[in-house]
Predict the structure.
Amino acid sequence: TQLLEQSPQFLSIQEGENLTVYCNSSSVFSSLQWYRQEPGEGPVLLVTVVTGGEVKKLKRLTFQFGDARKDSSLHITAAKPGDTGLYLCAGAGGGGADGLTFGKGTHLIIQP
Amino acid sequence: NAGVTQTPKFQVLKTGQSMTLQCAQDMNHNSMYWYRQDPGMGLRLIYYSASEGTTDKGEVPNGYNVSRLNKREFSLRLESAAPSQTSVYFCASKAALDTYEQYFGPGTRLTVT
């Protein structure tokens, strides 16, 4: 069974601070995706990274895929209260059933 | 474009009752998925359908059946609900087997008493 370990599980910081969320596995994935989920809603795709070492930026969010395609990170610069939510990483193509292997998520709270 | 829609949004069942969760997508996607989300467990794959006419088991298929009714619709059936099936159920779709991005519906919150 493939596992994706996300850390931290919970993070509460002040508006304007920076933060990094990590997603680690012992398995290799063909791609890794980051989702954001609001209470009562489904996950919404933020980004997909495919190539080892790839870096993608989405405004204040920077996503990186590890060189060996086993880990990823999400860095948020100058966090805003609107960034509050559950952030999920998910790996694809690691073998076995089609579908995504999800981490357990990081609950992020940005306090004004 | 509605994307992925799910019905119902909420449901309460008694142990042993049956029900079907409905999912439809209007993006002309080939592949569709059912996940469940439990506190502390993340999302886990129940069943998927790589294309119309095919279905396969995921990580946690026991107690569930699925039907890929046509390209748009993929239903999940609980024949005899158990309290352990209390969860939030999400349907997702993606364009094809060799694409990456999955698009999720809003979820069905199911409670089995």
Summary: Chain B has no helices and eleven strands. Chain B touches chain A through 27 residues (CB under 8 Å).
